[in-house]
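Progress narrative, Year 2. Work on ATP synthase mitochondrial F1 complex assembly factor 2 from Pterocles gutturalis advanced from sequence curation to structure prediction during this period.
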Amino acid sequence: ERKRFYQNVSISQGEGGFEINLDHRKLKTPQAKLFAVPSEALAIAVATEWDSQRDTIKFYTMHLTTLCNTALDNPTQRNKMQLIRAAVKFLETDTVCYRVEEPPALAELQKNEWDPIVTWAEERYNVAIGSSTSILGPNIPASTKETFVSHLASYNMWALQGIEYVVTQLKSLILSMGLIDRHITVERAVLLSRLEEEYQIQRWGNVEWAHDYDQCELRARVAAGTLFIHLCSESSTVKHKLLQD
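Result:
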């Protein structure tokens, strides 16, 4: 954390995109690049993060700013196909594909809660996914992986940074695609990704406040990542409407 050093936050349009101004200073990335984003709506969302900081700047709460910095600086120096492959690789260990046989109550819960989202993904993308109780996981066909590779290739680099971020948070490509397609909500995606943990908590109880904090943090990260993807995939400017009495 650091002390807030600015009074006003605004956005402006430059050659590289939409910029964030802290008083009269232009925001820069950790690698000292000009912080310029491709859409006005995203710039407004980032500006809101900065404006909502109080006496101190809590960088760990500014998920959209962090995602933009990652997209601009690309610290891992990965290209588009490497980002896509990293996201699709999660299919091999996808949370909703790994099932238990014991206890029966948890196995039944997984079947009831996870089967519908797997079935949706199979029908939506015309692929075979399945599930497995083996420690090796399901045998995902190469054609399924290539279908997802082809689909993700339709997104730009900025959106792909967000997609990989959400997939990593949920540890599931299937849940992430359900979110991006607006098939499930953030709350639902987080609940499904934490199904076994939620089952254990209901059975044995939880550490006071710690569970709720972890759940809220995950929701915040997943919500920010999903918003980032949509704002990077849509029109670059906001349509301003004249408000009438």
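The chain has two domains: 2-73, 80-233. Residues 240-245 have pLDDT under 50 and may be disordered.
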